[in-house]
UniProtKB/TrEMBL annotation, chain A:
Keyword Zinc set for record: no
Keywords noted in UniProt: Antioxidant, Disulfide bond, Oxidoreductase, Peroxidase, Redox-active center
Leading EC class: oxidoreductase
Leader sequence residues: none
Source organism superkingdom: Eukaryota
Organism of provenance: Penstemon davidsonii
Name by which UniProt lists this protein: Peroxiredoxin Q, chloroplastic
Domain Thioredoxin: 67-214
From TrEMBL, chain B:
Keyword check for Mitochondrion: no
Organism the protein comes from: Penstemon davidsonii
Compartmental location: Membrane
Membrane topology term: Multi-pass membrane protein
PANTHER family recorded: FATTY ACID DESATURASE 4, CHLOROPLASTIC-RELATED
Name of one Pfam family that matches: Lipid_desat
Family note: Belongs to the fatty acid desaturase CarF family.
Entry protein name: Lipid desaturase domain-containing protein
Nucleotide-binding keyword on record: no
Length: 214, 297
């Protein structure tokens, strides 16, 4: 099972929205649990649970930095597979699919990359751009993109700074970087968040399905 | 012996498999056979800590390295003895205590867990280390060779095939037999260790054609008691990262369905920076040899 978060005009305000009032202690625990949940074959695994008591700094970073539906994600500038710097603002004006994945050449990431490649024309038809982000360096991205003939941009988030700023949850109690996809509209607002570590092809299906509705 | 085109679309498991000889061999006679579906490139990890090409050579007719030696037979005797003692003690203690259900259930649990253990061990030596790895090097090299010449295992003599596992079982089970009289524990240990020791025989049977197998073995394979030929053939096909269990195979669907080994590989990669062999393109050492030798009986 995967988790999908959608922003529409009819949703109730999320507790995770950056404009909510400062949460009480019990809300902080609940917030943190929800903010760090990810899906693993239907078994929700959190890197913090309702019983854990995270430090105040990690709670703060979770509340303030996480990208949620309806929010504008933090800007970034990263290097692509050719070593050139690319900013998120470059993609403003068109829908953008930003997908965070664990590592180049791992089985799931390869399946996901190839699935985005194979459906790239559909994304183009929807007017959308695709951007993949992982902690690998530009050389690794270049080799990965060349090997699998990936037609879209791969960005190098060395140190996983952007991953943390966007609040991409980890899996297996923090042992694995999470696999999460964001769909931003042409104004740069996050409209869809999809998380699924071990069914990577579903990211393509869900994002395409969503793009058809907007 | 039938000669099959190596591009046979359905996996025909011809009788000749085994671990590979490490000794220099005579030039092979060329026959064609395929123990599995047509070989695809097996991915080889270019970033493993130890990079070792397969050092084995293709086996030939009457290859001495496939025959059992007295040392092999001694270890298998030792292994079987410890297993039988464990089971006998379990039965005896059960009779004395008038408890049967728990030891029998423990034995069944041992059989089930042996399959899981075989899968985890098989995954480990298929993906990490090499011939130079301490303790496990010979087995790692043998298993790499097995992927290249999968049919050889069926030509390996019984004790030759089992002696490595029999050695481990002897060392582990003997102290347990001496230290405990608990029928439940002994039932578990006896079944688990026995299944692990014989897993190489089950593995060999999974590489043989139905016509060459005893009818009872075929029935056990078809009934899911022993790993089936079809299920194990999947392990020898791209992407070579599934169906690792070789006792009954009951865990294969569960582990593969949960992406268990993929998750483990990812965790190991992110914790230790080591990629498994299954992540990268294979070299010729890993791919099934298309010009494999068959043995004419």
């Amino acid at each position: 099972m995967a988790s999908i978060s959608l922003h529409t005009n009819h949703t109730l305000p999320s507790l995770l929205h950056s404009q909510t009032p400062k949460p009480t202690f019990s809300q902080k625990i609940s917030l943190l649990s929800r903010s760090s949940q990810s899906q693993f074959h239907g078994l929700k695994l959190s890197n913090s649970t309702l019983l854990s008591f995270p430090s105040s700094s990690s709670v703060k970073s979770s509340i303030l930095a996480k990208v949620t539906e309806g929010a504008i994600p933090p800007a970034f500038t990263l290097r692509d597979q050719d070593g050139k710097t690319v900013s998120l603002s470059k993609f403003k004006g068109k829908p953008t699919v930003v997908y965070f994945y664990p590592a180049d050449e791992s089985p799931g990431c390869t399946k996901q990359a190839c699935a985005f490649r194979d459906s790239y024309e559909k994304f183009k038809k929807a007017g959308a751009e695709v951007v993949g982000i992982s902690g690998d360096n530009s050389a690794s991205h270049k080799a990965f993109a060349q090997k699998y003939k990936l037609p879209y941009t791969l960005l190098s988030d060395e140190g996983n700074k952007v991953r943390k700023e966007w609040g991409v949850p980890s899996d297996l109690f923090g042992a694995l970087p999470g696999r999460q996809t964001y769909v931003l509209d042409k104004n740069g607002v996050c409209r869809l968040i999809y998380n699924n570590q071990f069914q990577p092809e579903k990211h393509i299906d869900e994002t395409l399905k969503f793009l058809k509705t907007v | 012996m039938a000669v099959l085109n190596q591009r046979t679309p359905t996996p025909k498991l011809l009788p000749r498999h085994g671990r590979i000889s490490h000794k220099p061999l005579l030039p092979p006679r060329l026959f064609h056979c395929s123990a599995t579906a047509p070989p695809k490139n097996r991915r080889l990890n270019s970033k493993t800590l130890i990079l070792n090409p397969v050092t084995s050579r293709p086996p030939v007719i009457n290859d001495p390295s496939l025959k059992s030696t007295w040392t092999h037979r001694a270890w298998v005797t030792g292994g079987c003895s410890t297993v039988l003692i464990s089971l006998a003690k379990s039965i005896s203690a059960s009779a004395d205590s008038h408890i049967w259900v728990q030891p029998i259930l423990a034995g069944l649990f041992g059989y089930v867990m042996a399959d899981l253990g075989s899968g985890i061990y098989h995954w480990g030596i298929d993906n990490y280390g090499g011939a130079e790895t301490p303790v496990f090097g010979a087995q790692i090299d043998a298993f790499q060779g097995h992927h290249k010449w999968p049919w050889t295992i069926t030509r390996r003599q019984f004790a030759n095939n089992l002696h490595a596992l029999a050695k481990v079982v002897t060392f582990i089970v003997l102290p347990i037999n001496l230290l405990t009289n608990d029928p439940v524990l002994l039932g578990f240990v006896g079944m688990c260790s026995g299944c692990i020791m014989f897993s190489q025989q089950f593995h060999a049977w999974a590489h043989m054609t139905k016509s060459r197998l005893p009818p009872m073995v075929v029935k056990l394979q078809d009934g899911g008691v022993l790993v089936s030929r079809l299920q194990h053939a999947e392990h020898h096909r791209a992407p070579y990262n599934n169906n690792y269990c070789i006792v009954s195979g009951v865990w294969n669907e569960v582990l593969d369905g949960l992406s268990f080994f993929e998750a483990l590989e990812m965790v190991i990669y992110f914790k230790f920076g080591v990629r498994p062999r299954s992540w990268t393109e294979p070299n010729s050492d890993w791919t099934e040899d298309p010009e494999t030798t068959t043995f004419v009986s």
